[in-house]
Amino acid sequence: MRGILKTLLIFAALAPAGCGKLPFLQDRSQAEVPAPQPQTSPEGAAAVRPPEGARTAEQFDTTTADERKKAAAAPKPGGETLLGETVASLGDPAATGFWLETPLVTSVRQGRVENPATGKSSQVELRPIEGGGSRISLAAMRLIGASLTDLPTLKVFAGG
Questions:
Q1: Which of 9, 29, 49, 144 is the most exposed place for a label (fewest CB within 10 A)?
Q2: % pLDDT > 90, the chain
Q3: Which residues of 100-131 are buried (b: 16+ CB within 10 A; e: fewer)?
């Protein structure tokens, strides 16, 4: 009994010494956080990052009225090709701009998404991902009139 008690006391004394090495027990207040990298839009302009502590869609959506107007512009007649349909969820709300991560493309290219439920569309940067579903930017999701908690089925077009 005494041996077990002694072992438990030694374990209890030494256990905290190793806890700092476990990633889920480290003090994150002292951890180095890498500086955020500026994001760029397809046109090459620096994107405005959401403010620290952003909580609402309006705070995360840092696109300007001019950017929204340009993204909502009608496509050029005959200048696009239907790639297919995809179910999309909201992507990273801190990733600014108008984009769609989708398995319907194999390289980054310009395109457009249309929400058949609302008839609204958005010019977007199409980004390739693996998998079955797609992720859409907060700004594009708002522009096409989809609820941020919906999983809308979108028509995806290349070009335009």
A1: 29
A2: 44
A3: bbbebbeeeeebbbbbeeeeebbbbbbbeeee
